[in-house]
Design goal:
This protein has eleven helices and 18 strands. The protein has helices spanning 85-88, 106-109, 114-123, 141-153, 185-200, 213-230, 237-250, 294-310, 315-318, 383-398, 401-405, and strands at residues 2-6, 16-22, 29-30, 35-40, 45-49, 54-59, 66-68, 72-77, 203-211, 257-259, 262-264, 271-277, 280-282, 285-286, 323-327, 346-350, 354-360, 363-377. Strands 9, 12, 13, 14, 15, 16, 17 and 18 form an eight-stranded mixed beta sheet that branches. A four-stranded antiparallel beta sheet has the order 1-8-6-3, with no helix packed on it. A four-stranded antiparallel beta sheet has the order 5-4-2-7, with no helix packed on it. The chain is globular.
Length: 407
């Protein structure tokens, strides 16, 4: 007797998804409520769970195929089946062969997502030698990139050392290769929304620079006590979130939205935080951030970041949002012009902190500086309002006491 596996309800106004990856292959043992496939929607990846225990039967849809809600995509047959590759991996022998000498088979590649496969090809990394940090130990694109960076940083082997057998035949001299990979549903949505923002909004960006001395000092002074009391690290995002709330309270249009011929103003701040996920940039939302404490903000952002990396964000996590903060500084970005997240009207871009010479009281001194960028929809927000909002954020970061006395 077999049981059908159907595409689950995906959320309001979401009627179909794309088969991103099959996590179980025909003949493998399946436990009840174990993920057997990953679906990609316009916003998040969702796991399809096995309705019963048994053996993975037919796969009725291919990876990359669009499927509607309620569609039968697989069957679960009665029986015990074989263990999955992860479960069936034998215990290592006393003297295992080096990972670099272990050939990588086509069967192993079948369990990698398209973005991971592409990263493997681009960087020439053997995926079997990399430990996955994604959900259930899956490899992510970031895992491959970090492995490639570590490989580049490793010292070159000694000339006297014996040459190991190459994992694969080197490309012929002058050979040029190209690969075509279908865009994921999430990447298509990102492309469509960002282009729509450029076509619809009157985008403009204003810049300022911010002296991070006082915030860095406050963080250093209290980070250990903060972590012991609240169980979470004190980062810079909570400071910027609080500073943004001050600015949005003073300049309501920066927290507003255009809806047809009307302007919608919000008396709360639902903060969208741009985070990097294995399949692309996602923007989950911290609700009512204006009423949260520093610890509550840090916990919420840490939780959203972890779930983005694990691929467990839900559609509800992505809904709404009145203002966005995007931190390109974690990737080393010095300056950028971020694009707003429609229907929002503004986005704050943070960048890397670096020591620069500045003038203080007539003296040239070295200070940790960060460039701030505020991109905004000029249809709703005037230049004076945008500059004032960014200046308010700058002043609150440079003098964190303002965050306590609402100034």
């Amino acid at each position: 007797m077999s049981s059908e596996v159907k595409v689950p309800t995906l959320g309001e106004s979401v009627s179909e998804a794309t088969i991103g990856q099959w996590l179980k292959q025909p003949g493998e043992a399946v436990k009840a409520d174990e993920p057997i496939a990953s679906l990609e929607t316009d916003k998040v990846a969702i796991d399809v769970m096995a309705p019963v225990a048994g053996v993975m039967g037919q796969q009725l849809a291919k990876e990359g195929e669009n499927v509607a809600v309620g569609t039968v995509i697989a069957t679960i047959e009665a029986g015990t089946g074989t263990a999955s590759k992860a479960e069936a991996k034998p215990a290592p022998s006393p003297a295992p062969a080096p990972a670099s000498e272990t050939p990588h088979t086509d069967g192993d590649a079948a369990v990698l997502s398209p973005s991971v496969r592409r990263a493997v090809l681009e960087h020439g990394i053997d995926p079997s030698s990399v430990k996955g940090t994604g959900k259930d130990g899956r490899l992510t694109k970031e895992d491959i990139v970090h492995a490639a960076q570590a490989k580049q940083a490793a010292p070159a082997p000694s000339i006297s050392a014996p040459a190991s057998a190459p994992a694969s035949a080197p490309a012929a001299a002058g050979e040029r290769r190209e690969e075509r990979v279908k865009m994921t549903r999430l990447r298509q949505t990102i492309a469509r929304r960002l282009k729509s923002a450029q076509d619809t909004a009157a985008l403009l960006t204003t810049f300022n620079d911010c002296d991070m001395t006082e915030v860095i000092a406050a963080r250093e002074r209290y980070k250990d006590l903060f972590a012991r009391k609240h169980g979470v690290k004190l980062g810079f995002m909570s400071f910027f979130a609080k500073a943004a709330c001050l600015a949005l309270k003073d300049i309501p249009s920066v927290n507003g939205q255009i809806d047809g011929e009307e302007i919608v103003y919000f008396d709360y701040v639902d903060l969208s935080v741009a985070v990097s996920a294995p399949n692309g940039l996602v923007v989950p939302v911290v609700r009512n951030v204006d009423s949260l404490s520093f610890a509550e903000i840090e916990k919420a952002i840490a939780d959203l970041g972890k779930r983005a990396k694990d691929g467990t964000l839900t559609l509800d996590d992505m809904k709404g949002g009145t203002f966005t903060i995007s931190n390109g500084g974690i990737f080393g970005g010095l300056m950028s012009t971020p694009i707003i997240n429609p229907p929002q009207s503004a986005v704050l871009g943070l960048h890397r902190i670096e020591d620069r010479p500045v003038v203080r009281d007539g003296q040239i001194v070295i200070r940790p500086m960060m460039y701030l960028a505020l991109s905004y929809d000029h249809r709703l927000i005037d230049g004076r309002e945008a500059v004032t909002a960014l200046k308010t954020i700058k002043e609150a970061i440079e003098d964190p006491t303002r965050l306590l006395i609402d100034l």
